[in-house]
Amino acid sequence: MRKAGLLGLFWMFLVSEVQAAVDPAEERYDLVEGQTLTVGCPFNIMKYARSRKAWQKLQDGKEPLTLVVTERSPTNPSEVRMGKYTLKDDPDEAMLHVQMTDLRVTDSGLYRCVIYHPPNDPVLLFHPVRLVVTKDSSSLLTSDIIPTTRTTEDPGLFTTKYMRRDMTVTQPLPKSTTVVSSPDPGVTFTNATSVTRVFISSIVVPVVCGLFSKTLVFTVMFAVTQRSFGGQTMSHNSDF
Amino acid sequence: MLLAWTLLALLGLGASCNSVVPRGEWKAQPSECSQRLQHPVRYVVISHTAGSTCDCPSSCEQQARNVQHYHKGSLGWCDVGYNFLIGEDGHVYEGRGWHIKGDHTGPTWNPISIGITFMGNYMERVPPKRALRAALNLLECGVARGFLRSNYEVKGHRDVQNTLSPGDQLYEVIQRWEGYRE
């Protein structure tokens, strides 16, 4: 019975560990110089239709750098451009479209979409975006290989999750330049640029590290409770 | 021990996927849709039909046909708009399914989401537990089969469009779901 309680504690640690690792997970986008990054950041239409939105670059030890921000009180779809950065706010569709054109290796880094409403803290939309831009090389699929029919990523592709993410040479990227276009006017969502295989590698390491520390805490707690309850007979908990 | 757990897990997965009522079974009209969804899908949009409810297979099959008739006949769509429909009988009815883009939300969300609707009006009542369970099992199945990302996100219809759907009561319920993200 006490064992069950401790076991429950253990599972709690396990689950909370995975949860922590999963939720703020970055979405990684691997692209090649010259390509365009397209990200769709949804927002809650009831809360943020009229709010300003921004695309920011996150920098270690510094304030996030706002690269482009929407106009005040956008009610209709609006577009704002700052050099290579474009923001399209579609309040009726609850989507913020971000575009970064003509990517360079120096564009690599961590970015995010936010609700921009100083002095309030910005609200993160979508996931932090880890952009990795590499030099064009013949070992990567380049944009001249464009499938003419839209391919669906079938479950078989899940096996690539287990490949190391830096093995860019042999990774199949069937979606790398496919645009998910629908006949619906105006909005194309380039699903192609997202690479989902970061999931395993960015989860396993923090989870394992976290597990070690949590196991240590758990062990200490276990030892402490053993010591404080050791010898005492639990006479009143018979109703389990 | 591990083997037992694995078998149990596999059994569970198989069951959630196998219990969807296929189109033929509810006597659906053929679909004329051709646009496909790219897998794995990231988003799930939960709505309600705001129409009649049903609580047994025969009435739910009829209701699914009614919804399809309205969408195809009156609205001129290629098929019933939803990817899946849930009845109060606790069954999932196959609409456009996992592979075909639905017409349940709007031009931005249809190509990137699975639209699941609850047949009924849930402003003032909640669907029965078996219906909610059916929906959650369906989502589990979607992940297991690779149709949904493992970190898929559930949105209420009203989160992404100006609408009352999925109804106040059902909206409150889904906000407590594991995958819900506002």
UniProtKB/TrEMBL annotation, chain A:
Matching InterPro entries: Ig-like_dom (IPR007110), Ig-like_dom_sf (IPR036179), Ig-like_fold (IPR013783), Ig_sub (IPR003599), Ig_V-set (IPR013106)
Membrane topology: Single-pass type I membrane protein
Residues annotated as domain Ig-like: 24-117
Main location per the UniProt record: membrane
Signal peptide from the UniProt entry: 1-20
Gene Ontology CC: plasma membrane
Domain of life: Eukaryota
Keywords carried by this UniProt record: Adaptive immunity, Cell membrane, Disulfide bond, Glycoprotein, Immunity, Immunoglobulin domain, Innate immunity, Membrane, Receptor, Signal, Transmembrane, Transmembrane helix
The keyword Oxidoreductase belongs to this UniProt entry's keyword annotation: no
Residues spanning the membrane: 198-224
Compartment annotation: Cell membrane
Pfam families assigned: V-set
Function according to Swiss-Prot or TrEMBL: Cell surface receptor that plays important roles in innate and adaptive immunity by amplifying inflammatory responses. Upon activation by various ligands such as PGLYRP1, HMGB1 or HSP70, multimerizes and forms a complex with transmembrane adapter TYROBP/DAP12. In turn, initiates a SYK-mediated cascade of tyrosine phosphorylation, activating multiple downstream mediators such as BTK, MAPK1, MAPK3 or phospholipase C-gamma.
The name this protein goes by in its record: Triggering receptor expressed on myeloid cells 1
Organism of provenance: Cricetulus griseus
Gene: Trem1
TrEMBL record, chain B:
Places the protein is found: Secreted
GO cellular component terms given for this protein: extracellular space
A GO MF term: peptidoglycan immune receptor activity
Assigned keywords, A-Z: Antibiotic, Antimicrobial, Disulfide bond, Immunity, Innate immunity, Secreted, Signal
Alphabetical list of Pfam families matching this protein: Amidase_2 (PF01510)
Segments forming domain Peptidoglycan recognition protein family: 18-161
Major localization class: secreted
Stretch forming the signal peptide: 1-17
SMART domains: Ami_2 (SM00644), PGRP (SM00701)
Keyword DNA-binding: no
A GO biological process held by the record: killing of cells of another organism
Parts of the chain that traverse the membrane: none
InterPro entries named among the record's database cross-references: Amidase/PGRP_sf, Amidase_domain, Peptidoglycan_recognition, PGRP, PGRP_domain_met/bac
Disulfide bonds: 17-141, 54-60
Domain N-acetylmuramoyl-L-alanine amidase residues, every copy: 29-167
PANTHER family associated with the record: PEPTIDOGLYCAN RECOGNITION PROTEIN, PEPTIDOGLYCAN RECOGNITION PROTEIN 1
Family classification: Belongs to the N-acetylmuramoyl-L-alanine amidase 2 family.
Role according to the record: Innate immunity protein that plays several important functions in antimicrobial and antitumor defense systems.
Record-given protein name: Peptidoglycan-recognition protein
Source taxonomy: Eukaryota, Metazoa, Chordata, Craniata, Vertebrata
Gene that encodes it: Pglyrp1
